[in-house]
Amino acid sequence: MTELNHLTPLINIALFASALGDKKTILVPNQRLAIQITRAWGTTQLAEKGAWLAPSVYAIDNWLTHCWDELHDVHAPEVSGWARVSGAHNQYYWERAIHSCDSDGRDRHAKLAQNTYDTLTKWELSPNHAQGDSPSLPYFKRWSSAYEQLLKKNKLVSHGRSWEIIANAFQQQRLTSLKGICIYGFQTIPPLQLRVMKAATLDLIALDRGSSTCLDTKKMTAPKTDTHALSEVQSVEAFPHARKLRCVDGDAELVQAVRWAIHHVKENPLQRIGIVVPDLNQQINQLQRIVDRTLKTESINIPVNFSAGTPLARTPIIAAAFKLLAFYENQKPLNFWIQQLYSPYSCIDSLPLSLRVDTERRLRKSGRFNLRLDDFCKAISRSATDIPETKEVELSLAEIQDNRPQVQRARKTFSAWSRMFKEHLAQLQWPGYRVLDSLEYQQNRQWEQLLENFCRLDTLGIEVGISRALKVLTTMALEETFHAQTPDAPLQILGLLEAAGLCFHRLWVVGLERNNFPKLIAINPLLPAEFQRKYAMPHSEVERELWIANTLLQGFYDNSQQLILSFPQRRGEELLEESPLLWTVAPIEYAQIVPTIEPTNDPKGAVPKDHCHWSKESNVPLNARSEKPRGGASILRNQAICPLNAFAIHRLLLEPIENPCQGLSALQRGTLLHQAMLDIWSKWRSSDYLRQTPDSVIAEQLNAPIKNTLWKASKEIHCLRGPRYRQMEHSRLHKLITQWLEIEKQRDPFEVSHLEQMACIKLGGLTLRLALDRIDQVG
């Protein structure tokens, strides 16, 4: 395998050499770009000297945090005693502010209000600047006022307010001015961040086209562009080596892009290849599966870097932890408990597979949509006859079940809940008995850090119940992104903004259909639309989105030697059109860029041969001594309908999966009717009694066997425990039996000779066991 250390840097370090040599500060929009610049600079310095000073390269948010921390280090009076609110603390104060203003305010508004407030602050505006007839604006103003009062009361400042303090500190020389700031990779810079930069240095320059426009506030809003004039935005000559590709749909597009990339990696493992996916966060799981499958098909083993991460709460090991913590809830869906049976992340995994299968069958046969923990425990106990391995699991689950009422009533601090969560997971042997792989180990370490941050919520000075604690922890885990730590790789899969400013030998940008590129505007519902357009706020102007898309496209072209721009022709039943920015790009066929691989419309690709096992046997003889097929007359019926199904049902003993149903299933209704009729004819025994007894007496005598049948069944069928539902089923059975008895009266006289008679019939080498419900003697 080729050494990945010989890969060329993803950054053209020549752009930064002069600024870094002069000890200037480089600011970029994201941490990935900052790391790549630092790495590229280190590569050049390593060739010249053995040691060097770390360059001042920061993502813009990290630099502002560094400045805030420096103000605290020098004990600046404007920050003395004040802290910056962040994370779950900020969410809590917004929720509290909303509830204090509107008793029916919902927590889901907190995140939207928080983002709106942050955007206004970045644009050096306040909620009071907003004017208009938006019905939600008065609510937002009240919430914002209450939020600001809460922050002031608790000696906290928002991020935007901390940036204002930093700008003033530079102007008052409390922070040392920088020799110079160079910006790179920006498409938009909020006015407040730009003010901080200008206050920090007199030498602020841009190193690329997009960042240069950001420095000129008069150009922050792109000129008005008619849709019909979009073809003039770029000409054919502007992208001579770019090509556009039409793909059948989004799935085929991703498969083709990955195959193209891996094909070129095999040709030359030292080249840099990138795939840019606009909605990478939504498609990362699908892309990872496609990459893994293609690497295996092509027999190549290389790391692949993904710029997008996965919410920590959705990684398998952490998702399993939250499901185990959900044992304290009253009820969970049937599928939840079945997942726990086969999860490798708890002590339940130590149970024999046959026991877990029997437990699943018991849970399914209950016919219920939702089950409690005690139902789950009972199903395991009934399946675990004489199996010693289950004792430890049963004791752990029983202890949790016994403590559940107390835990549900308890109110504790966040740190106390954190300790309880750890003890609960340890009791269930999370994360399982096996050794964790590298990714699971990283996720486990990030989980421990998350619990430490969760404990810091004790500074709020409140106690909460378990439902609130779990809700807060889940929210924090969803907002915490897990990025796998992988070595540098020739293949990079990136989002649009993460790819900006990086250099590639070959680059493929997917998903460039009309509704996706440029991005459609998204007006904030809490602010008037005209107000947002007036101040060129994010996603409020079509012209601005067009300019950003065009700038990104030009950057991709400038930083790649081969550029493929593709779009899907349909999404489901919807027909899609290419982005107007691709109108003048020359088309190309897939076979022209990957001549050795035929394009495929199958997003799943070919199934690897080692995933299939074929077995052919023309005849499977029945050994009557060792094999006893299950079933009576149904064997003949099923064999006549479909021999394959008959073999599966009666020889392999396969059963269909039983799904829960609302109320009684058809099988349960038939069983109840059967049992009621058995009780009735056990007493009557002949048609004479039926004909001689008045209808009113018959109707009265039906009540007792029906009532007895329903009472016995209620021990296993939960829906029959309610009096109203049981009475409805009683009426149904009474009506149905009465109608059937009218048919019985029309028959010739008969006597019931046998009920539930068992019989055996030998047919060739097959013995059929029959259960005859009733045998009448007629005449």
Summarize it.
With 779 residues, the protein is an alpha/beta fold. It is 49% helix and 11% strand.
Notes on the structure:
By secondary structure, the chain is of the alpha/beta class. It has 4 domains: 4-76 and 164-219, Rossmann fold, CATH 3.40.50; 86-157; 227-307 and 490-593, Rossmann fold (3-Layer(aba) Sandwich), CATH 3.40.50.300; 312-482. The strands form 7 sheets. It has a 6-stranded parallel β-sheet with strand order 7-16-15-8-14-9. Helix 10 (250-267) crosses helix 11 (280-297) and helix 13 packs antiparallel against helix 14 (353-365).
Largest sheet: 6 strands, parallel
- For the biggest β-sheet, the strand order reads 7-16-15-8-14-9
Helicity range: 40-55%
The gross shape turns out to be: elongated
CATH architectural arrangement of the largest domain: 3-Layer(aba) Sandwich
Q: Tell me the CATH topology of the largest domain.
A: Rossmann fold
Number of strands: 20
Radius of gyration, taken over Cα atoms and rounded to an integer in Å = 35 Å
What percent of residues are in strands? 5-15%
Q: Give the helix tally.
A: 29
Pairing-aware structural class of the strands and helices? alpha/beta
Low-confidence stretches: 219-237, 598-606
In total, how many domains does the architecture comprise? Answer: 4
CATH superfamily of the largest domain: P-loop containing nucleotide triphosphate hydrolases
- The N- and C-terminal alpha carbons lie at a distance of 91 Å
What integer is the average pLDDT?
A: 86
The CATH class name of the largest domain reads Alpha Beta
